[in-house]
Design a protein that fits this description.
Elements (H helix, E strand, L loop, with lengths): L6 E7 L3 H13 L5 E6 L3 H12 L5 E5 L8 H9 L6 E4 L4 E3 L1 H13 L3 E15 L5 E6 L12 H10 L10 E2 H13 L6 H14 L2 E13 L11 H6 L3 H20 L3 H19 L3 H4 L2 H11 L6 H17 L23 H13 L6
Parallel strand pairs: 1-2, 1-4, 2-3, 6-9
Antiparallel strand pairs: 4-8, 5-9, 6-7
Helix pairs in contact: 1-2, 1-14, 3-6, 5-7, 5-10, 6-7, 7-9, 9-10, 12-13
């Protein structure tokens, strides 16, 4: 199979030339032959910088879509960019992530031979880069996302497992292009542009209603924990405080239950109960009891302290360990307290070519900024 004829990578970007350059530099090092579409919603000045930067990688097959205004929402840019895809499979890659060519290739090979699976991906590794007292750059690695596949033949069971154990947005995995286009056409019909969390959940759960999910034993994506988020993403607690959660959830449930009923032969009433039960499990896992929320600001303060370069490494190490345990207690993370050794790369990845390429790109770009 000629993989370049089967996969297109869609990269939405917004005012982060440094991250986009880092990602394209990695694909250039990989000698990637896949199609790449950059959905650029940056300011005019940064779009100009992006155009010049993209042109510096003439070997890559990049279509730079820069007709979006800075006000164009992420979901709108993704939906529009997918209309330019002409390959059988697609993957969405955030500009601060690295999705590996071998992860995408193995995912395509799996989906080609398993038509009952709607999506495939692999292992996710996270890193952040520290400057230990300005002496040397040091990578800290960990895994967070579950590596479980979801293989039940029952759409209701798949839906409940995805929501109740939610750890990853499935739209970063490999899909058939027609299916991914449909998801990003259907999702906006039942969400508003500002409903970022419901957009993510609906796009991710529709995938599992229509098929199984495979997590392959391959390095699929490397994510930067220290990357700077552009803009504030509202939480469900924000929706509740604004008294908009119920309205938003009704639309979300209407869409999801209709498709679940269609795929599982459940009545619409029973399908809604499945969605309600799964969402209740999701909320219990993701949001702590109110009595614990009082302590949550402490984790933010600790994060600011750890970011200060003039703090000695031993002090930041102690604060990080305490902060991890506090976040686990508050259920602000999905994992148990992480010991320091857990930040090392798994043995199987110590000499991995993709890890080495990514490290080179990260170190050469230092701390990427908007420009």
């Amino acid at each position: 199979m000629k993989q370049n004829e089967f996969i297109t990578i869609v990269i939405p970007t917004y005012n982060r030339t440094g991250y986009l350059k880092r990602l394209l530099g990695y694909y250039n090092d990989c000698r990637l032959t896949y199609n790449i579409i950059v959905a650029d919603g940056s300011s005019d000045e940064i779009k100009k910088a992006n155009r010049e930067m993209v042109s510096s990688f003439p070997v890559l097959r990049v279509l730079h879509l820069d007709g979006y205004s800075p006000e164009t929402r992420l979901n709108v840019r993704i939906s529009d960019a997918l209309n330019y895809v002409n390959t059988k499979y697609s993957v969405i890659c955030a500009d601060d992530d690295f999705i590996t060519p071998k992860g995408m290739a193995q995912s395509v090979d799996f989906l080609e031979s398993h038509p009952d699976f709607s999506v495939a991906h692999g292992q996710y590794i996270f890193f952040n880069l520290e400057d230990e007292e300005k002496k040397e750059s040091k990578f800290r690695w960990k895994t967070i996302y579950s590596n479980e596949s979801i293989t039940s033949t029952d759409p209701a069971i798949r839906l409940h497992k995805q929501l109740s154990e939610y750890s990853i947005a499935t739209f970063y995995a490999v899909h058939k292009t027609e299916f991914l286009q449909w998801i990003w056409t259907e999702t906006p019909r039942y969400t508003k542009d500002t409903d970022a969390l419901f957009i993510e959940l609906l796009a991710s759960t529709l995938t599992l209603v229509y098929g199984k999910m495979k997590c392959l034993d391959v390095l699929y994506a490397v994510r930067d924990l220290s990357s700077t988020r552009v803009g504030y993403i509202q939480t469900f607690r924000d929706y509740m405080e604004a008294c908009t959660y119920k309205e938003q959830y009704v639309r979300f449930r209407e869409c999801l239950s209709a498709h679940l009923s269609k795929q599982s032969q459940l009545s619409l009433r029973k399908a809604k109960k499945v969605v309600d039960k799964a969402m209740t499990a999701y909320m219990k896992k993701r949001y702590p009891a109110k009595k614990r929320v009082i302590l949550a600001p402490l984790t933010i303060a600790a994060g600011h302290i750890m970011d200060r370069p003039n703090f000695p490494g031993w002090l930041r190490k102690g604060i990080r360990s305490s902060n991890t345990r506090l976040r686990s207690y508050l259920r602000l993370t999905r994992t148990e307290p992480v010991e320091e050794d857990a930040f090392d790369l798994p043995l199987s990845l110590r000499n991995d070519e993709d890890i080495e390429r990514i490290k080179r790109q990260v170190l050469s770009s230092a701390q990427p900024s908007a420009t």
